């Protein structure tokens, strides 16, 4: 950090806190011109400390996730808004799959007063929260808890979810990426779509098992996920029945 100015250090701190900051917001925050902010961003990117995005700056691309505690402190207000929108839509008496991630844990906090839920999850934090309600049935797969992430993943976890059929399956994701797909057999044009992504194939496989065995498929994602990069595909966004962000919820993404 010795080569950074005070303002650059503060910009970097904001980016690590929020994962993504717009140039306009930074300009207003520091009371300097957007050109000055762009020069600071260029310097941070040149040192590999940040990554430029259209209209803003985010965290550098990485193939490894940050710790659960670090992610828990990120975008808290937005994640809580998402949780507040999702929880009331889950009916009592439902069978629900909950995937990994801190937003899912916040949803679990708002389900503690529901009744007769059967919850199947590999999210240890969500299971711990929901276990306080004696009117719920909680199922966890066996295996080693990843202390870094607060979850359990692996082939056996995907098989565990396949033994159930859920009314609602809710997953988060590491990133949302716009990908170009090769043409299908008999077609010549390429297709592009936005995909929910994870950092690891085993994480993506568990999320795929959750959505595959759920009647309703829901994705929860903060806006920062559109600014991040991950390389393991889960499914296309248009395969979800509902997509929840802090700004809005989008229903019936499928073409049905």
UniProtKB/TrEMBL annotation:
InterPro entries: Carb_Metab_HTH_regulators, DeoR-like_C, DeoR_HTH, NagB/RpiA_transferase-like, Tscrpt_reg_HTH_DeoR_CS, WH-like_DNA-bd_sf, WH_DNA-bd_sf. SMART domains: DeoRC, HTH_DEOR. Transmembrane segments: none annotated. Keywords: DNA-binding, Repressor, Transcription, Transcription regulation. The keyword Hydrolase does not apply. SUPFAM superfamilies: NagB/RpiA/CoA transferase-like, Winged helix' DNA-binding domain. Pfam families: DeoRC, HTH_DeoR. Coiled coil: none annotated. The keyword Nucleotide-binding does not apply. Residues 4-59 form the HTH deoR-type domain. This is Glycerol-3-phosphate regulon repressor. The gene is glpR_3.
């Amino acid at each position: 950090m010795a080569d950074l100015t005070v303002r650059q250090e503060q910009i970097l701190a904001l980016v690590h806190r929020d994962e993504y900051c717009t140039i306009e917001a930074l300009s207003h925050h520091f009371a300097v011109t957007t050109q000055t902010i762009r020069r600071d961003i260029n310097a941070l990117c040149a040192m590999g400390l940040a990554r430029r995005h259209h209209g803003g700056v985010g965290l550098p691309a990485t193939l490894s996730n940050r710790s659960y505690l670090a992610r828990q402190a990120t975008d808290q207000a937005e994640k809580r808004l998402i949780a507040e929108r999702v929880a009331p839509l889950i009916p009592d008496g439902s069978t629900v799959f909950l995937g990994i991630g801190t937003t899912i844990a916040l949803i679990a906090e708002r389900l503690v007063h529901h009744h007769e839920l059967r919850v199947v999850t590999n999210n240890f934090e969500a299971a711990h929260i929901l276990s306080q309600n004696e009117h719920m049935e909680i199922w966890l797969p066996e295996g080693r808890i990843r202390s870094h992430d607060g979850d359990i993943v692996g082939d056996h976890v995907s098989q565990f979810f396949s033994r159930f059929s859920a009314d609602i399956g809710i997953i988060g994701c590491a990133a949302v990426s716009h990908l170009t797909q090769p043409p299908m057999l008999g077609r010549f044009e390429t297709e592009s779509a936005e995909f929910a992504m994870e950092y690891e194939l085993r994480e993506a496989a568990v999320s795929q098992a959750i959505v595959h065995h759920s009647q309703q498929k829901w994705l929860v994602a903060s806006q920062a996920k559109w600014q991040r990069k991950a390389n393991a595909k889960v499914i296309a966004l248009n395969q979800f029945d509902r997509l929840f962000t802090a700004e809005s919820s989008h229903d019936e993404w499928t073409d049905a």
